[in-house]
Amino acid sequence: MARTREFDLDTAVDAAMGVFRAKGYEGASMRDLAEATNLGSGSLYAAFGSKEGLYLAALDRYRHGTPPHW
Questions:
Q1: Which end of the chain is more exposed for a tag (fewer CB within 10 A), N or C?
Q2: Which residue has the higher pLDDT, 54 or 70?
Q3: How do the domains of the chain map onto residue ranges?
Q4: What PANTHER family does this protein's entry cite (predicted)?
Q5: How far is CA 25 from CA 1, 5, 7, 8, 47, in A?
Q6: pTM of the full predicted structure?
Q7: How far is CA 44 from the centre of its chain?
């Protein structure tokens, strides 16, 4: 049985956007993203599939004009 997600995806994407904005895609490590989101890398992989998946979620948020909660 799958565990219930115990974090807010929007909050995680907002935090990741800050990392990608500051370091760029190549400069941002999964460790950086995990620290910024206060999540383990396993949780990020489970939710987004990969660093690219998280980046695409951040781009989608940016493109559709949903402001981050910084």
A1: N
A2: 54
A3: 9-63
A4: HTH-TYPE TRANSCRIPTIONAL REGULATOR YJDC, TRANSCRIPTIONAL REGULATORY PROTEIN
A5: 34, 25, 23, 22, 18
A6: 0.83
A7: 7
Token code pair at residue 42? 């396993």
Reported as a pLDDT band with limits 50, 70 and 90, residue 34 is: very high
Token reading at 50:
């990969």
Q: Which fold has domain 9-63?
A: Arc Repressor Mutant, subunit A (1.10.10)
Q: What sign results for the dihedral spanned by CA atoms 11, 28, 19, 61? A: negative
Placement of tokens 């994407």 in the chain:
13
Helical packing angle, 9-27 and 41-48, nearest 10°: 100
Residues 6+ apart with CB under 8 A from 68: 13, 14, 17, 18, 61
Taking the mean position of all CA atoms in its chain, how far away is CA 29?
A: 11
Q: Tell me the two tokens of residue 32.
A: 């950086």
The C-alpha angle with vertex 17 and arms to 14 and 22, in degrees rounded to 5, equals 135
